[in-house]
Amino acid sequence: MQAVELPDEQVELAVEIFRMLADGTRIRLLWALRDTELSVGELAQALDKPAPAVSQHLAKLRMARMVRTRREGTHVFYRVENDHIASLVRDAIHNAEHASDGIPAHHRAGAGASVTPISADGVR
């Protein structure tokens, strides 16, 4: 079997991304930002967390290049850095839904899922 060649720098960046995802608050922040941009205050309210704590998490995500900012006057708005980060978080949440019993929320009718559920007999 041939060894898989990956540049060390890419592997280290991937490790840092997964390190950032190893925190529930940061997962929730990225989930909230997956399709929109929000201010620290809006994120703090959505997560029911103190704004300083949310700000610290966002700073870590920004340093890891997982979110970007846009300043408008005195307000700073955050959004995910790119579609890959949004997809990574979305896939992690969807995978977690599959790990539990029942039909995952992203497969239920009206959930806007792009995946058609497969029944136990393999029929879509």
UniProtKB/TrEMBL annotation:
Record keywords, A-Z: DNA-binding, Transcription, Transcription regulation
PROSITE patterns: HTH_ARSR_2
Domain HTH arsR-type positions: 6-100
Signal peptide residues on this chain, from the entry's feature table: none
Gene3D superfamilies assigned to the protein according to its UniProt record, in alphabetical order: Winged helix-like DNA-binding domain superfamily/Winged helix DNA-binding domain
Region of interest (Disordered), residue spans: 102-124
Keyword DNA-binding carried by entry: yes
Top-rank taxon: Bacteria
UniProt-recorded Gene Ontology molecular function terms: DNA binding; DNA-binding transcription factor activity
Pfam families tied to this protein: HTH_5
Alphabetized NCBIfam families for the sequence: HTH_metalloreg (NF033788)
Entries under PANTHER family matching the protein: ARSENICAL RESISTANCE OPERON REPRESSOR ARSR-RELATED (PTHR43132), HTH-TYPE TRANSCRIPTIONAL REGULATOR KMTR (PTHR43132:SF8)
Protein name, per record: ArsR family transcriptional regulator
